[in-house]
Amino acid sequence: MSQRPRPFDDVRAALDGDGAGNRALPVGDDRPTLRLDLARRQRTGIPEIVHAEHKSAETVAEALLRLAERNGRALATRCSESVAEEVERRLRVGWVVERHERARAVVVATAESSVEDGGGRVGMLAAGTSDLPIAAEAALVAREMGATVDEAVDVGVAGLHRLVGPLERMVGSGVDVIVVAAGMDGALPSVVAGLVAVPVIGLPTSIGYGFGGGGVGAMTTMLQSCAPGLVVVNIDNGVGAGSTAALIANRIAAAKGTP
To answer: Rounded mean pLDDT of 49-61?
Structure first.
């Protein structure tokens, strides 16, 4: 009788290699100030993403270059305009540099690189146009993980009739999970979770003022939701919402045998 594989056997193999110091997957970059996880996508399904905030343009460009050299493409989020411009200037020769201004992100890729279709379908709702940058970040991350993303904007509870059409379209197209970005009172994710039969990820944004401003009120509302099927990420965590949504959606697609 064949022995069942043990959990984490692939991880052990990646770390131990062939016993001669040759690892099946690279553990990371060996530079003391820039230790990149070059095999994160192979190990977890989520690529190593460069968080550009509080980093110099030189550091961001170097990280993107090393990741793209290894994996064919690389993503940096929270890029200021000056950082994005500098990355584009440094890597314009020999690389395709895509600036996603709405998501405040940059993708660096080889000319022949493309995103492998994971088969998953993600719905992305932004309650208001002020929530759009965070929702766009989540959508970009999900797309870079191979999911198809259906987006709708400005469908918040202040005019709830605006939600009906986009939500019907998403459910009809067979989305596997829906991300709902909302600031202010953060009520929209609860409404959506009470209407659909797929997981809903609440993404609170730092839109709001006064008591509970900065996203605190939105996150508290989502965490206190009485609608089951809703989980919540941290304030403005578009990367967390997008990557989790893509993992769920791609896993479901694999179980269905698609693509």
So the answer is: 93
Topology of the domain covering 121-256: Rossmann fold (3.40.50)
Distance CA 83, CA 140 (A): 18
Q: How many residues does the chain have?
A: 259
Q: Is the pLDDT score of 130 beyond 60?
A: yes
**Measured CA distances, 241 to 122, 124, 183, 231, 253 (Å):** 11, 10, 15, 10, 18
Distance in angstroms (rounded) separating the CA atoms of residues 195 and 225: 14
Cα–Cα separations (whole angstroms), residue 144 to 209, 222, 229: 33, 27, 25
Given a cut of 70, whether residue 21 has pLDDT beyond it is no
Task: Give all strands of the β-sheet with 105-109 in edge-to-edge order.
Answer: 49-51, 73-77, 105-109, 96-100
Other CB atoms within 10 Å distance of the CB of residue 42: 14
| Backbone φ/ψ region at 27: left (φ over 0), alpha (ψ -120 to 50), beta | alpha
Task: Identify which of 179, 185, 224, 174 has the alpha carbon closest to the alpha carbon of residue 203.
Answer: 179
Strands 96-100, 105-109: pairing is antiparallel
CB 83 within 8 A of CB 105: no
Q: Over the chain, what is the mean pLDDT? A: 88
| Domain ranges for the chain | 29-109, 121-256
Residue 118 CA neighbour count, 13 Å, CB half: 26
